[in-house]
Write a structure and sequence with these properties.
single chain, 358 residues, alpha/beta, 2 domains, 10 helices, 25% helix, EC 3.5.4.26
Length: 358
C-alpha cells in the first residue's frame, strides 16, 4: 500500500486514544508485501506508546519471534527517544529489528529527534507523510509543549442556558450521576485539578477522583487552588490521605503563571503535564480569555434556570468575530455522549482540522 494510505489508517487508530499529557498517536506495522501485521495506539499517560503497542501486539501473535527487517512501522508522530514511564520508542524499534519507519509529524517537544536516532542505527526513515493531518491531530498538545506548560482540560457542568447555579446559589446537583462518574474518570487520568478560591469557600469540594461506587481511585491528582484569598485549614481539600494526595495554593490570578508554576511541580514523582480546570466562573473565564484551554468536556443537563450564575463570564469578546471557536473532537469515545439524561459534548479549540478524515 502507498505510505499515505497506511498513514491514514494510523490516524484512525490514533483517534481512539485520550487527550492529555501525551499526544494522540497511532501506529501500523506492515510487511514488505503490504499486509497489516498489527495496529497500536496510545491510551494515555503511563500506558504503552503507540509504536510499542503495535510491536507488542505483533509479538503476542508471533511468540517464537519473526524477522522484521523488511517490515515498515508507520507512526503519526516521530518516535520518541526519551526514557520516561515507558522506554524510548527508538530503542524498542531498533531492538525489534524493524527495517523501515515512516512517520507523519515531527515531535516539537524535548522528546524530539527520534528520527535521527533511528537513522544513525541504520533504519530507513521517511519523515513528513501526511504531516499536516498528523500535526493538526495534536495542534493543542503542540501549543502546550511550545509554551512549556501542562495540557489543559476544561470542565463545564451546566444547564441548557449555561448556568452553574440558581439565583439562590444552589448548584448540587445540576448534572446527573452518569455525568459526575464521567468527570471522576477524567479526574483520575489528570495530574492536577484546579479551582478558584471562591469555589473552595462556597462549595468546599474534596477534588478527589472516585469510582462509580464512591471509592477513591488508586491514583489521586494534585488538588490545586488558584487565587489570592487564603484557604481555611478546615476546608476538605486540605485533608491528607486517604482523602487526597496533596494540595497546592497558587497565589495568582494569572492562568499562564499558574500553569508555568505547575509545570515545575511534581506529584507522585512525576511532573504535572495535564491539568483539569473545574472552575468557578472567574477561573474558567480567565483560562478561556487567555486561550489556555486545550480540551473541553461540556455536560449539559436538560433543565433551564433563566437566571443565576453562568459557567463563563466576560472573556473580552465585544463582537461575534472575536469569539473563540471550538470543533467537535472525535477522540475519547467521540464528540457527543448521552449520559442519562445529560449530553456531554467533547470539544477542542478550532484548528485547521480536528479529524483525520479532513
Amino acid at each position: 500500500m502507498p505510505d499515505e494510505a497506511v498513514m491514514r489508517q494510523a490516524l484512525d487508530a490514533a483517534i481512539r486514544g485520550v487527550r492529555g499529557a501525551n499526544p494522540l498517536v497511532g501506529a501500523i506495522l506492515v510487511s514488505a508485501a503490504g499486509e497489516v501485521l498489527s495496529t497500536g495506539h496510545h491510551r494515555g499517560a503511563g500506558t504503552f506508546h503507540a509504536e510499542r503497542d503495535a510491536l507488542e501486539s505483533f509479538a503476542r501473535e508471533h511468540p517464537a519471534g519473526a524477522d522484521l527487517g523488511s517490515a515498515t512501522l508507520y507512526s503519526t508522530l516521530e518516535p520518541c527517544r526519551h526514557q520516561g514511564r515507558q522506554p524510548a520508542c527508538t530503542r524498542l524499534i531498533i531492538d525489534a529489528g524493524v527495517g523501515r519507519v515512516v512517520h507523519g509529524a515531527s515531535d516539537p517537544s524535548s522528546n524530539g529527534g527520534g528520527a535521527d536516532v533511528l537513522r544513525r542505527a541504520g533504519v530507513d526513515v521517511v519523515s513528513g507523510v501526511l504531516a499536516q493531518q498528523c500535526e493538526a491531530l495534536n495542534h493543542r498538545w503542540v501549543a502546550a509543549a511550545v509554551q512549556a506548560r501542562p495540557f489543559v482540560t476544561a470542565h463545564l457542568a451546566q444547564t441548557l442556558d449555561g448556568r452553574i447555579a440558581a439565583p439562590d446559589g444552589t448548584s448540587q446537583w445540576i448534572t446527573s450521576k452518569a455525568s459526575r462518574d464521567h468527570t471522576h474518570m477524567v479526574r483520575s487520568r489528570t495530574d492536577a485539578i484546579l479551582v478558584g478560591t471562591n469555589t473552595v469557600a462556597v462549595d468546599d469540594p474534596r477534588l478527589t477522583a472516585r469510582t462509580p461506587t464512591g471509592e477513591l481511585t488508586l491514583r489521586q491528582p494534585l488538588r490545586v487552588v488558584m487565587g489570592m484569598t487564603p484557604v481555611r485549614p478546615a476546608q476538605k481539600l486540605t485533608q491528607g490521605l486517604p482523602e487526597g494526595d496533596g494540595w497546592l495554593h497558587l497565589r495568582t490570578r494569572d492562568p499562564l503563571a499558574a500553569l508555568q508554576e505547575l509545570a515545575q511541580t511534581t506529584h507522585g514523582g512525576y511532573p504535572i503535564k495535564h491539568v483539569l480546570v473545574e472552575g468557578g466562573q472567574s477561573v474558567l473565564s480567565a483560562f478561556f480569555a487567555a486561550d489556555l484551554v486545550d480540551e473541553v468536556f461540556a455536560y449539559h443537563a436538560p433543565l433551564l434556570l433563566g437566571a443565576g450564575r453562568s459557567s463563563v463570564g466576560d472573556i473580552g469578546v465585544r463582537t461575534l468575530s472575536e469569539a473563540p471557536r471550538f470543533a467537535l473532537d472525535p477522540a475519547d469515545s467521540g464528540p457527543v455522549q448521552i449520559m442519562d439524561p445529560d449530553v456531554c459534548v467533547h470539544l477542542q479549540p478550532k484548528g485547521d482540522t480536528c479529524s483525520p478524515e479532513s
